[in-house]
Amino acid sequence: MKKKNLIVFDIDDTLTSSEKKHTDSLLFAMDNMGIKNVDTDWRNYANATDSYIVKTNFERVFQKDFSLELLKDFEKVMTDHFVTYPDSKEVLGAKKIVDFFEKETNYGVCFATGSLFQPALLKLEQAGIIFSEEVLETSNQIYTREGIVSSAIDKAKKYYNVTDFDHIISFGDGLWDVTTAENLGLHFVGVNKRNVEDFKKQKVLYHIEDWTSFDLNKAEEIFKIN
To answer: Taking the domain 5-18+89-222, which CATH number applies?
Structure first.
């Protein structure tokens, strides 16, 4: 089926229940690098991405410029720690919804995460979510959420062989996901229970606790997608 619209999925606590062990692994790798006393309220960072968080704290501690080249060893330490935890589980219904969009609708799918690549890959694989690496974008080379989502969309255009998408719906669990969607002019659906009140304050039009309650017809009605 030709894909005229697109779904952009965040990963942590949107598709996979993995935020806590991701944060623990990120902090472990920073500690291994000599970075301590990290502010873990990601809302306080200009960009809530692994690469930007590491960059900000590296420059705070060592008082010198950060290079993305440093992420190669950092990512290995982080990933090695990540795999010591039990496998990531899907957010209820995530596997089915990804398959549904891909096989039964005119929506393509892509994945845009502030995570580094290897942990992101592991989360999706462990949760049993079927995906193509060709439409996955991470923060290894991009600091901003907007840059990551824009790159994922560009990858999806190439993957599905389309010039553009009529409508793009972004799904995420974080306040930064809302802001990113607004900045890029995308529709947005909030996922998970954590930020319900904040979603309301930001006038998010559609929110689901997990994927079993998602209704595509309702989303299309809210966003006026024909």
So the answer is: 3.40.50.1000
